[in-house]
Amino acid sequence: MQEADFDSTQPATTRATTAEFAYMHPLQAGKVVGLIYAFLALIFVPFLILIILGKGGPDAVGEIIGAAAMMLIYPLVGFLGGVVIASLYNFAAKQIGGFRIDLK
Question: Are strands 17-21 and 99-103 parallel, antiparallel or unpaired?
């Protein structure tokens, strides 16, 4: 070995471990995705309400109520979507194996 190839700051060997992501808890996935969707609703719904107020018109009150309802509907849809996707992943992972991740 040449002296230029030796680096004393690096460990002598680096070993990678392969892990398989075999199961996802559907309710936990639903809670996480629902929370993410709730944050997204908190960001986008106020802008939607401002657009509705700027547009005006006779239907503005109903549109604002609909936009406010999105604050409840959007996280609920995210929760249900997270549960469904996690369940589908678990089915597929059982059949063909889950994601394989290399950890160092």
Answer: antiparallel
